[in-house]
Design goal:
The protein is mainly beta. It has one domain. Helix content is 13%, strand content 42%. It has 1 helix and 5 strands. The longest helix is centred in the last third of the chain and has 10 residues. It is globular and about 40 Å long.
């Protein structure tokens, strides 16, 4: 299950683990082109965060169904 929310400066996708074994993962797409991924760590009582560019995010999405190898993803802006 996942949710999508729109804020004034970002879109937030939250994915919930349906097996209830892992904490929710939030992906925050900032209007400034920065992507944040975070997951709450209960033992530390804080979020663990990754920060990446939109290009890095697109690389990860393209890699999901790619064969082994090196790739270059070209983002086309309309």
């Amino acid at each position: 299950m996942f949710t999508v929310e729109f804020e004034s400066d970002a879109s937030i996708v939250t994915t919930l683990d349906q097996t209830n074994m892992h904490e929710d993962v939030e992906i925050i797409f900032g209007d400034d082109g920065v992507v944040y991924m975070r997951q709450f760590e209960p033992d530390m009582e804080q979020y663990q965060m990754l920060i990446m560019s939109a290009q890095q995010w697109m690389d990860l999405m393209a890699a999901y169904k790619s064969a082994e190898g090196s790739y270059y993803v070209e983002i086309q802006h309309e």
